[in-house]
Design goal:
The protein is mostly helical and 124 residues long. 47% of the residues lie in helices and 5% in strands. The chain contains six helices and two strands; from the N terminus they run ααααβαβα. The N and C termini lie far apart (79 Å). The relative contact order is 0.10.
């Protein structure tokens, strides 16, 4: 009597039985049918993110006064932060505020997650 797959009570091993090829042949057919049933869906941009917002005078001193989408506001802030080396050296998710950023953040240091929340108060 086999103890488990391939072993007999006398300790001799034999090869495991071969799997049937018919099972493997069916799997690709199902995948092909699934691909034709689900067409690719195109993603559309969220209109709220693409709407142009006007920065406050304090924020305009950093990113410019022209209205732009929130995504561009964040990009320009990161450009400013990296150009002035304001990321904390020990923990890169923290931003050390200079004089211009302190007017916006009201703190000497914020996390990059807090930054977007604090900046939203300066957008209209």
């Amino acid at each position: 009597m086999p103890l488990f797959d391939g072993e007999h009570s006398d300790g001799n091993w034999k090869a495991a039985p071969a799997k049937k090829a018919a099972v493997a042949a069916k799997a690709p057919a199902k995948k092909a049918a699934a691909k034709t049933a689900a067409p690719a869906v195109k993603r559309t941009a969220n209109a709220a993110f693409m709407k142009a917002v006007t920065p406050s005078p304090q924020l305009a001193a950093i990113i410019g006064a022209t209205p732009m989408p929130r995504t561009e506001v964040t990009k320009k802030l990161w450009e400013y932060i990296k150009a002035h080396k304001l990321q904390d050296a020990a923990k890169k998710t923290n931003i050390n505020a200079d004089a211009k950023l302190k007017e916006i953040f009201k703190k000497p240091q914020v996390t990059m997650f807090e930054m977007t929340k604090l900046v939203s108060a300066h957008l209209s």
